[in-house]
Amino acid sequence: MRIRALVLVASGAVALSALAVPAAQAATAGPAVTFSSLKVNSGKNIVVGSTAMVTVSATYTVTKPASLDASSIQTGPVLYRGATLGENSDDMLLGDDPGTCTASSSTVLKCSAKIQFRPKGSDEDGDLISTEAGTWKLGALAVNADNGVTWQGDLGTTHLQRRSTLTVNASPEPVKKGKTITVTGKLARANWDTNTYAGYSTQPVKLQFRKKGSSTYTTLKTIKTTSTGALKTTTTATADGYYRYSFAGTTTTPSVSAAGDYVDVQ
Q1: What is d(CA 32, CA 149) in angstroms, rounded to the nearest whole number?
Q2: Is Signal included in the keywords of this UniProt record (predicted)?
Q3: Contact partners, residue 105, CB within 8 Å, separation at least 6
Q4: Domains in the chain and their CATH numbers?
Q5: HSE (CB half, 13 Å, CA atoms) of 63?
Q6: How do strand 157-162 and strand 46-48 relate by DSSP bridges?
Q7: Whole-angstrom distance between the N-terminal and C-terminal Cα of the chain?
C-alpha cells in the first residue's frame, strides 16, 4: 500500500507528501505531543466501492507543551495494521493533507482531517487491494519543523469494507396460493483490484417475507451463496407480499438487503 505521511521538506517547513516515512525517521524522538479522542468517520465503518474514491472525516485532540508553537507542527490520523505504529507497521494510510487545528488553550488543539481511500485499480495513486479489507487500528502522527516525528498508536479500531450489493427475483408472478415460489438472487462485493463487483461465496443470507400492508420482514429460512455468490431457494405462496434477501455482513463487507420483490398471490 502506498503510504501518505507527513514529512519535512528541504527548507525545514512542514508539508505533506505521498512518500513513505523511512524507518530511521519514524524512530526519531519527536515533540512532546499526545493525541486523544480520535474518531474516524464518526465511528462508523468505512465502505469503499469498486472505483470511486471515498473521503471520510476525522476529529481528534492534540495536547502539546505550551512552549511548542502550534504553527510549527502538523498532524494527521493514521490507519495501520501490525503490532505497532511506525517502522514495524505492516500497512499505513494517511490523508492527502495534514489536519487543521484550532487552539482551545496554550496546550490543547482541537483538530479535524480528511482521509482518502482509493481502490487500487482505479488510478495510479490507488491504495486499496481487496485483501486489505477488514479491521484496522487507529493512530496519529505529528511532525515538527525541527525534524521531530511522533507516532501514537492504539487509539481505536475501524473496519475498512468492500461495498456489497444484493439482488432478488421471486417468480412466478402472479402465483396461486399454496404453489411454489422460486427466489433467486446474487450477493456481490467490490473488488478493489479489478474495479468490478464479484460474487461473495459461501455466505449465509436470509430469505425474508413482508406481507402486503405490513412494515416488518419475517425470516423464512437461511441459505448460503454458491461459489459465484448466487442464491436460489423455494418457498410456498401464502399471501400477497414482498420477498427479499438480507445479508448480515462481515468485518470485510457491510450488511445489505435487497429491495423487496412483490408477488401477487391469487
Answers
A1: 10
A2: yes
A3: none
A4: 5-161 (2.60.40.770), 164-263 (2.60.40.730)
A5: 6
A6: parallel
A7: 57
Cell of 80: 495501520
121: helix, coil or strand?
helix
pTM surpassing 0.85?
yes
SS3 58: strand
DSSP count for the chain of H helices, then E strands: 1, 21
C-alpha cell belonging to residue 168? 432478488
pLDDT digits (tens, 9 = 90+) for 92-118: 999 999 999 999 999 999 999 999 999
Which of 54, 52, 46, 254 is closest to 164 using CA atoms?
254
> What is the rounded distance in angstroms from the CA atom of residue 263 to the CA atom of residue 140?
53
Comparing 23-37, 84-98, 210-224, 235-249, the range with the smallest average pLDDT is 23-37
**Neighbour-count burial for 213-244, b at 16+ CB within 10 Å, e otherwise:** eeeebeeeeebebeeebebebebebeeebbbb
Contact 197, 237 (CB under 8 A): no
| Partners of 231 in the β-ladder | 185
Q: Rounded CA gap, 125 and 148, in Å? A: 27
Segment 15-53, tens digit of pLDDT: 333 333 433 334 344 458 999 999 999 999 999 999 999
Here the cell at position 248 is 448480515
With cell 473521503, the residue in question is: 55
Alpha carbon 209 to chain centroid, angstroms:
30
Q: Where do the H-state alpha helices sit in the chain?
A: 23-26
Quick one: DSSP state of residue 265?
Answer: B
Distance CA 207, CA 228 (A): 18
Whether the bond into 119 is cis, omega within 30 of 0: no
Secondary structure class of 82 (helix, strand, coil):
coil
